[in-house]
Specification:
Elements (H helix, E strand, L loop, with lengths): L5 H26 L4 H6 L6 H12 L3 H13 L2 H27 L9 H5 L2 H34 L3 H49 L3 H12 L3 H4 L12 H6 L4 H4 L1 H9 L5 H18 L1 H10 L15 H6 L4 H39 L5 H29 L2 H7 L2 H15 L5 H20 L12 H22 L7 H4 L14
Helix pairs in contact: 1-7, 1-8, 1-17, 3-8, 3-13, 3-14, 3-17, 4-5, 4-15, 5-14, 7-8, 7-17, 7-18, 7-20, 7-21, 8-17, 8-18, 9-15, 17-18, 20-21, 20-22, 21-22
Length: 506
């Protein structure tokens, strides 16, 4: 369905790209993004408001515009809390990890470097591999939405849309690094609020107002109305809530983009910015459910997609009810939110490549200038990888399936990471065994088929639960058999020249 002309769509992408590139260049000149510390962690000097807005808008994925209405289309109004609650859980679960990490490892550029100090390079390499593919998947989820929504509303080939978006995002991260991401995120956070405060109510009243929308939902849903309009609709919990909670619900603990922001803000502001960010996420993304409500009122749901609207297309169809002028502004705001999500993964991948792969495993005597060039080169390389992955996903995978599956990486790392931070007997062998076995079993169960030996079909949430159980159990058992006796103070006091907020002394 094309609602806005392709020419208008190209103009919007060009306008957004110009603004973001200009802002990134301004920040580059103002903040002096000319060394690895500034590029990767903003020198540990990010203000509370900037970091909080960046954290919140990073978790208010562009995918929410599609994901929340799709949940509503499948589940009804209970889809609102099934989607939004795990996002809050993810933000709040990070707090004890962040406080512990900032006390033990204030000098870190990336939290994965902690594992070198704690376990050595083998464990560090395992963590790098897990983070690498989870960050790439996160970027694919975001870019998928750009192609799906902008392409669907303008008639532009989604692959062209995704290519342009990735080019622009890659360029402004190339210039500004994390400072560019944080600053554009702040602009995009304001945009997300505008989207919720202005466009969601406008859509509601374009559909006739709350009363008429409610009546039309009852009429369209017929015998299913009592189920769809109940917050206590628990039957689909295994398909929608549990896989989200077990995967993306602990995503924040292993997300490198989250840890970049933890290390960028002052240590004494950590709890405040994570709490405010998590609450803000719930408040704002819950409002996206209104798009789904309007869709249920205006269209008949048909899971075959032949006689009505499939839940996967509910957001596009509902947004098409907006007046053209407001839809144009909506798409511009959506581009802002989309950029904030995708650029966070690019900066995380650049950090991972520069510090954890190049510096730690390739060239320990690499100059800061060399590390900075690697970080910038990695941002372009992974922009291309994310684009190619999204082109494939758009043709082969439904959005909710992609969204939920992207949380599998967290199931293998979250438990062992917690044990390593709070239990001094956690051993390198136990940690590696738990993470690797969990990821291998989860991948086998998720990607396998009946033709494979010993393969058994499980729902996604059970695969994730099995992944958590294997990771924690093996880490515990192996560590009990072959325990470590780690001195956490060795990390805590390992570099007295570094300030507690993570930045370098100047």
């Amino acid at each position: 369905m094309s609602v806005v002309s392709a020419a208008t769509g190209y103009a919007l992408i060009g306008l957004w790209g110009g603004m973001m590139l200009a802002l990134a260049y301004y920040i580059y000149r103002q903040q002096g993004v000319d060394d690895t510390s500034e590029f990767v962690t903003a020198g540990g000097r990010a203000q509370l408001g900037l970091a909080t807005a960046s954290f919140a808008v990073t978790w208010m994925w562009a995918g929410d515009v599609v994901g929340v209405p799709e949940y509503v289309g499948f589940v009804g109004i209970a889809g609102t809390w099934m989607y939004a609650a795990p996002a809050v859980l993810s933000g709040l679960l990070v707090i004890p990890f962040a406080l512990r990490m900032r006390r033990l490892f204030p000098q870190g550029y990336t939290y994965s470097e902690y594992f070198i100090e704690r376990f050595g390079r083998r464990a560090h390499l395992v963590v790098v591999l897990v983070i690498l593919y989870t960050m790439v998947l996160g970027g694919i989820v975001q870019l998928y939405v750009g192609g799906f929504v902008i392409g669907g509303l303008t008639g532009i080939d989604p692959n062209v849309v995704m290519g342009l978006l990735m080019l622009i995002i890659g360029l402004y991260i190339l210039v500004g690094g994390l400072w560019g991401s944080l600053t554009t995120d702040f602009v995009q956070f304001v945009s997300a609020i505008i989207l919720v405060v202005l466009f969601i109510p406008l859509l509601l009243f374009e559909a006739g107002g709350p009363g008429l929308v409610y009546e039309d939902m009852i009429s369209n849903l017929g015998e299913e109305a009592s189920v769809y309009l109940s917050m206590q609709h628990f039957d689909p919990i295994g398909d929608f809530f549990l896989p989200y909670a077990l995967g993306l619900g602990v995503w924040g603990i292993v997300s490198l983009s989250t840890w970049q922001r933890v290390f960028a803000v002052r240590r004494d502001k950590t709890t405040r910015f994570l709490t405010i960010g998590a609450i803000g996420v719930f408040t704002i993304i819950s409002m996206y459910a209104v798009i789904g409500f309007v869709g249920l009122a205006a269209f008949e749901i048909d899971f075959t997609g032949e006689g009505g609207v499939h839940p996967e297309n509910l957001s596009i169809e509902a947004l098409g009810l907006l007046p053209e002028w407001s839809l144009i502004l909506f798409m511009l705001v959506l581009l802002m939110v989309l950029g904030s999500s995708t650029d966070s993964y690019l900066t995380a991948l650049a950090s991972l490549t520069s510090r954890d792969i190049f510096y730690q495993n390739v060239s320990r005597d690499a100059s800061d200038e060399a590390q900075l060039w690697v970080a910038r080169g990695a941002s372009i390389f992974f922009a291309f990888i994310i684009f190619i992955g999204t082109v494939w996903a758009l043709d082969n995978v439904g959005f909710v399936t992609l969204l939920l599956a992207s949380g599998i990486g967290a199931t293998g790392l979250a438990g062992p990471f917690a044990l390593s931070l709070f239990w001094h007997k956690t051993s390198s062998t136990g940690f590696i065994t738990g993470v690797v076995c969990s990821q291998l079993v989860s991948a086998y169960l998720f990607l396998g088929s009946p033709a494979l030996p010993l393969w058994t079909e499980f729902p996604l949430w059970q695969i994730m639960a099995i992944g958590h159980a294997i990771a924690i159990t093996l880490t515990l058992v192996v560590s009990l058999v072959n325990p470590d006796d780690f001195d956490f103070e060795a990390i805590e006091h390992s570099d007295a020249t570094v300030r507690a907020d993570g930045g370098e002394e100047r």
